[in-house]
Design goal:
alpha/beta; nine-stranded mixed sheet; six-stranded mixed sheet; disordered N terminus
Length: 406
Amino acid sequence: MRVMRSSLCCFTLLVVILTGCYSGQGPKENKTEPTTNAVSPPVESPAASPAASIEPTPTLAPTPTPTPAPITHRVQLSAIGDILLHNRVYEDAKLPDGTYNFKPMFEKVKDLLEQPDILVANQESMAGGSELGVSSYPMFNSPHEISDALLDVGVDLVTMANNHTMDKKAKGILSATAYLDKIGMPYTGAFRSQEDRDRIRVIMEQGITFAFLAYTYGTNGMIVPEDQTFLVNLLEPELMKSDIEQARKLADVVVVSPHWGIEYATLPNTAQTELAQQMADWGVDIIIGHHPHVLQPFKWLERSEGGRTLVMYSLGNFLSAQNKMLQMLGGIGQVEVVKTVANGTTTIELENPTFIPTFNQYKNYANFRVIPLNRLEAKKRAEVEPHWNQVKNQMLEYLPEIKLID
């Protein structure tokens, strides 16, 4: 019974302990986080805290587009004087088989003729070919082979408007131009048709375009048919001005070869100087004159619109049988053309006018050779020197900056 009372006591004590662990007044335990109405301390915004400040992103200036570097093109244009084939010249070139070879006549100057980018020659005697009968002064007709020789030494274009253009009438012009077309030699001043005449010759070289025109004061009384006025260009101001305006639309540089002046006069006359200024004001860049058969000076002309024009009043004879010292002096006229493209604007400038004198040497009207003056034998040079000095002094007077390679 003690055992049972002890067990009962233990049981009673356990009930009391368990009952004390529970309170009927408290709520049932909730496993979610309690919601509180307590106010939390304020939290500083990032902007209010120096340690958390954010610097604004700077606005970058736009990168400027670089200005393109100027683009420059350079071309050396050269010209030679009259190719005037008297009978003594073409007889010297005649071969046993009846054909002609003029190439040896240029062999001593060929290296100089091949140097420029563009080379222009004045074909004074119409090269209508032997089929029409070759002839000399006063009614010239030259063998086709002279055109082959000019092509061989580097001539890029021939001018054919002169007082001998109509010597063989239309048939001479048609034969000469047909042969030039055949060998691929451009020409101007005399033409096959109106369509041919209206097609201004333009040559592109080193990024520069050149337009070429040529005119003559007359045709030695030979009448140009009214229905064939295209055969030869005459020095008619309205015609010239219209052509020049058209040429300016086609090319960067306009080159005109007028056949003008007084034969054997070493200085230009008033008609030449006035017409030269007119052409400059119309927009011609380079004027290459012929007809006097002797050298005349070069000169800069100021244009009414700004800029300047180079005029070579006369380049004299390059190859002929004329026998006076001043008529035997010729040469190569040169000028450097500079085209600059910058900021969408194109400018043309002429620089470094140069002249290389030549001498048309022969003996007993045979062995014709064109020789640079500085390559002549000493004895012949001494003979030519006084006459060259006369020309040289005039050239330096008109254009002091000209470079003379003599």
